[in-house]
Amino acid sequence: MSKIQALIVDDEWNMRNLLRIYLRKEGFETSEAATGQEALAWVNKQFFDVILLDVMMPDMDGWQVCKAIRETALVPILMLTARSETKDKVKGLGIGADDYLTKPFEPQELLARIYSLLRRSSLTPLARPQDHSLKFSGLTISPEAREVHILGRAVDFTQKEFDLLSTLANSGQRVFTRDELFF
């Protein structure tokens, strides 16, 4: 059986190191990001079973990162932050986080929450919507929603532009005539 893949997103090295130690001791495989942009790059290139996400980071805050991840993925997200006010918890859960834990925390509680998220995410795999999105190094094309995202940001396309991009992206190395493309 493969190891559980966890992404740790926190701008503080000490916190990433502590989380890495806890998770690896439990047999997890960990990847780390110190910024929101790094986190989105990781999510675009690799599958994760769970993401631990800090809120207060320099380039993009955790709220923005969570929203961007939710545009393309259903991976469980646990917000792990020093922001302990009820309004922050409500905001985090409202924008798509699956759980919210405040710092400082007890390692046993963190692990219990992670395992709970993993159980819930694996209970009904058939009930999850199929993701037919096409992903290319920062570019995500979602045919069902007719949306295009570049580095997590939505980009507007006309219907014809979207159809053309989608056709080319779905066709690999195939060469098209002009008539085939302008259907």
UniProtKB/TrEMBL annotation:
Xref: InterPro entries: CheY-like_superfamily (IPR011006), OmpR/PhoB-type_DNA-bd (IPR001867), Sig_transdc_resp-reg_C-effctor (IPR016032), Sig_transdc_resp-reg_receiver (IPR001789), WalR-like (IPR039420), WH-like_DNA-bd_sf (IPR036388)
One of the GO BP terms on file: regulation of DNA-templated transcription
Modified residues (4-aspartylphosphate): D54
Keywords: DNA-binding, Phosphoprotein, Transcription, Transcription regulation, Two-component regulatory system
Domain OmpR/PhoB-type: 131-183
Domain of life: Bacteria
One family name in Pfam for this protein: Response_reg
UniProt GO cellular component terms: cytosol; protein-DNA complex
DNA-binding region: 131-183
Domain Response regulatory: from-to ranges: 5-118
GO terms assigned for molecular function: phosphorelay response regulator activity; transcription cis-regulatory region binding
Coiled coil: none
Xref: PANTHER family: REGULATOR OF RPOS, TWO-COMPONENT RESPONSE REGULATOR ORR33
Protein name per Swiss-Prot or TrEMBL: DNA-binding response regulator
Organism, scientific name: Paenibacillus albidus
